[in-house]
Amino acid sequence: MHNAAFATRGLNWRYLAFEVDPKHLRAAIEGARAMNFAGLNLTVPHKLLAVDMVDELDDSAKSWGAVNTIKFENGRAIGFNTDANAIVTSLRDDLKVELRGAKVLLLGAGGAGRTAALKIAAENVAELFLVNRTVSKAEAIAAEIKKQFPSVKVSVGYPKAEVDLLLNATSLGLKPEDGSPLDEEQFSLKRTRAVYDMIYKPAETKLLATAKATGCKTANGIGMLVHQGAKAFEIWTGQPAPVAVMRRAVEGCVYAV
Ligand code: ATR
């Protein structure tokens, strides 16, 4: 998606993938700086490690304690996080859901679930319900939200009434044999307007298929992937990202047979 974006903007830049052993991450970042790279993206498990390897952390990286984007500027490495914002942008763009004042049911309390929960709380939702197989992990996140965002009503367990959005941040649905992460005996899909699944491959999980059949608005996580990349593009180039071009390029790669 970045190479497609560079071509669209007429930039003679290249985006390349390198597999780096975590024990060589510092050397890799230093090497990129020495070679005058414009920047880097990092993924698991490097996002947390890189926090201590940059010269400066942007507020986005400070808030989430993780770096997925580095920009080299005047010889300094600046760390950013474009993941959390991408959740909000994708919900707005792909589902037309505004989080402010909304009621949200979030499934999952792993790495992705925690970031989503905190970001959603930071957007001033009215109510947030957290559900996770390991209940203690959802409880720990609820406690963190109560401390950081006291105005948000947060609870653990399925809601009794309707919600505006159900968001899946569990990994259940990645494999073809996986069931749905939602316990429909506890919460019927008829009680939500919209369903977002962070999983984008397969394009339609069982959860999304059932939600669609029930009449909910649905979207998968491809928009999150595109928007974290679009923001990184803007950080590196200082130009607006050609988001539609980037989305087409991603879809071409991810869904190509
Ligand atoms: P990620 O970084 O993608 O969030 P993770 O931190 O391993 O990955 O979290 C995976 C999430 O999917 C967790 O919420 C996990 O539930 P637990 O906290 O109970 O482990 C959830 N998950 C994974 N497999 C599951 C399953 N078979 N049933 C229900 N939840 C599952």
Describe the structure in brief.
The protein is of the alpha/beta class. The protein has helices at 2-8, 25-34, 46-49, 59-64, 83-95, 111-122, 135-148, 206-214, 222-237, 243-254, and strands at residues 39-41, 56-57, 69-73, 76-80, 103-107, 127-131, 153-156, 163-168, 192-197, 217-220. 2'-monophosphoadenosine-5'-diphosphate is lined by residues 108-113, 132-134, 137, 170-172, 181.
Structural account:
By secondary structure, the chain is an alpha/beta fold. It has 2 domains: 2-81, 3-Layer(aba) Sandwich (Rossmann fold); 84-220, Rossmann fold. The chain is built from 10 helices and 10 strands. The strands form 2 sheets. It has a 6-stranded parallel β-sheet, sandwiched between helices. The protein has a 4-stranded mixed β-sheet with strand order 1-3-4-2, with helices on both faces. The longest helix is centred in the C-terminal third of the chain and has 16 residues, at 222-237. The structure holds 2'-monophosphoadenosine-5'-diphosphate. Residues 108-113, 132-134, 137, 170-172, 181 line the site of 2'-monophosphoadenosine-5'-diphosphate. 2'-monophosphoadenosine-5'-diphosphate (ATR) binds next to helix 6.
